[in-house]
Amino acid sequence: MSTTPYRAGPEPPGTPAGEALVEEPAALPSAQSLGAARVAEPIPQVSFLVSSRTEIYQPIVRVLFEARQASRMALTTSEVAAELARYEELRFHAAEHLDAYLRQLHTWRVVERNEQRGVDYASLEEYYRGRVTWDLTDAAVQVSRFLETFTPDGDRPGSLGPERLRHVHGELAALAELLDDPAPAAGRALQAFTNLGAAVDALRAGVMAFMATLQAARSAGGAVDEALFVAYRNGVTEHLEDFRAARRRYSQPIVALIERLEAAGALDRLVALAASAEGAYDFRRSERETRAVRERDLRLVWRGVREWFVGAGAGRESPWQRLAEELRGAIGWIAQSYRRLTEQAQSRVDVVAEFVALAHLFDRQPSDADCHAVATGAFGLFGARHVALREHEPELTSGRSWLEVPDELLPDVPLHLRSPDKGAPRGRSAALPDATAARERAAAERAEQRERSRRLLERFATLGATPLSELPPLDADELRALREWLSAAIGDPAPAGRPRRGRSPDGLAIVTLTPHPAGARTTIRTAHGTLETEDFTFAVSGA
């Protein structure tokens, strides 16, 4: 068996095993100083980055680095393998295979190897379970931190993080406090602008990575990968439950702070204050030119903040509109993928049931010969049918090919063996099942549904355009219909502030939702459930 780890599917062909498991790293180019004949030596701690198997070494180093950041004790080989499998990065056939890669990292002085001395190991599993531990060296920690500056989100995209909106709000509030300070500090203003730009950039990176994950999942063909489906579903759930709640909480306060900072030239004063802070001196420019460059950079940061939370102007799509469109497609993909995964699981269960039934059939047979007969019949382990035909002169044709036997000595082959589309009469076909009762039940259910929809349409249509907060008490059917109609109308991609329209699932009603001017929310409480939503003005008319 190959010792190479795998991510999914069978092992790749041609994978080296045994002694060829780990190769020597690519030789780093050496350089000679102009002033002395001294050749620079390569740094072994970065060898895992230039190795041809860096896609295996990097996840191992990342797991050990995250354990170091969490102040965990040194990890055993089995614990490293479990962490790699938990993040769906690498799986090894056995712990000793991972141990070979860890030993190579130890050779490169990337990890430290600690072993309990004077202990008798009862088994190889006990050895890998707790006798040897691995930890990153200090130099490898510095290399990992350097890599983290380029890949802050790692290989796990799609995380939005509601705390990013909180950071944006906090830095805007810090800038607003400087307006009330009689002697504001230039360094504090520069720090707030810098942190604000970093927070918005992190928000942008999270949203873009999240949308890229959605698009990649929907564009993937073939069978649905269960791990991808779980990650996709968790990302959408995180957005709907956490990020949207944070956006509702911070959106209006952020917009209010932006308007306050842009009023009466306050932004110009803050930009000038931040640009006057002490910093690295640029000998290529004068002091006035340096301040102009700083002010331009700070205004670019502010423009990015404004485009995200206020808008980029007429004719340009807001990032939130793009995110909403991706989410509408994402929810449909989740429903479709769940159905496909259910079908795949059901087909696997059916196959297992067949084999279990066959095993019970084997168990009931009195002898091995009977078991072989059952297996032959179940799996169709028969020879060619014409071989079993009776020959006219078996003494003359035995042991000879049919190509050598005269035609008059060949057996008579039935016609249905020569023509697959013709065969012996099979008798009467089975009677078709009588589905009269099922059709009658379906017709009765449709009639009951139409009557219920007609009654609900009359009830809601007579109310006219009514805010959801002023609706009369609802029964179970009315609450269910209201949820369905709201879902149909909310999915309408109407511009912000414009009414949204949708058609009821049965096609009998047209629902119109007019957003509340202040975005107020309401909670509809009934004896059959609770519905929390924006306080839309709700109107229903016949289709």
Topology:
Layout: H1 47-50, H2 54-69, E1 75-76, H3 77-86, H4 95-107, E2 111-115, H5 124-131, E3 132-136, H6 138-150, H7 163-180, H8 186-219, H9 226-262, H10 266-275, H11 287-309, H12 319-363, H13 368-379, H14 394-397, H15 415-418, H16 436-461, E4 466-467, H17 476-490, E5 500-503, E6 509-514, E7 521-526, E8 529-534, E9 537-542
Antiparallel strand pairs: 1-3, 2-3, 4-9, 5-6, 6-9, 7-8
Helix pairs in contact: 7-8, 7-9, 8-9, 8-10, 8-11, 8-12, 9-12, 10-11, 12-13
Describe this structure in words.
- This protein is 54% helix and 8% strand.
- By secondary structure, the chain is an alpha+beta fold.
- The protein folds into 3 domains: 133 residues, Winged helix-like DNA-binding domain superfamily/Winged helix DNA-binding domain (Arc Repressor Mutant, subunit A, Orthogonal Bundle); 164 residues, no CATH class; 96 residues, no CATH class.
- It has a 4-stranded antiparallel beta sheet. A 3-stranded antiparallel beta sheet has the order 1-3-2. The protein has a two-stranded antiparallel ribbon with strand order 7-8.
- Helix 7 runs antiparallel to helix 8.
What do the pLDDT scores average to?
Answer: 73
Q: Mind summarizing the main beta sheet?
A: 4 strands, antiparallel
Q: Give the amount of beta strand, in percent.
A: 5-15%
What integer value in Å does the Rg equal? 36 Å
Low-confidence stretches: 6-40, 152-158
Give the number of DSSP strands.
9
Query: How many helix segments?
Result: 17
Taken in chain order, the helices and strands follow as: HHEHHEHEHHHHHHHHHHHEHEEEEE
